[in-house]
Structure to design on (99 residues):
């Protein structure tokens, strides 16, 4: 949190993926084939969403535990917005969220 508040990074995160995971660039398919892959084959399923009244701390916990960066926000079953991890970073840096 101190790094975020200071608006500067003191170190660069390691590009090495966690044990058991491949780096995103390890896909063996040729670039032309990658463009032919449909969205359904790479999307998260089931879709993770949250209600507008979901507490921020709960949404952060869900996103962290599931390792997802964007969550559709619903009201009465209809999408009203999208929250991303960058939205949380901006809210912390601008003081809208204090920790």
């Amino acid at each position: 949190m101190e790094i975020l508040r200071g608006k500067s990074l003191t170190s660069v995160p390691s590009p090495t993926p966690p044990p058991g995971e491949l780096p995103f660039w390890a896909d063996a398919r040729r670039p032309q084939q990658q463009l032919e892959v449909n969205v359904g084959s790479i999307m998260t399923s089931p879709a993770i969403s949250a209600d507008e009244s979901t507490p921020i701390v709960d949404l952060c916990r869900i996103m962290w535990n599931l390792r997802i960066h964007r969550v559709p926000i619903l009201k009465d079953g209809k999408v009203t917005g999208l929250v991303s991890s960058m939205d949380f970073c901006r809210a912390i840096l601008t003081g809208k969220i204090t920790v």
In short: The helical segments are 2-6, 31-34, 56-66, 85-93. The beta strands are 50-51, 70-75, 78-84. Residues 48-99 form a domain with the CBS-domain fold (CATH 3.10.580.10). The mean pLDDT is 79.
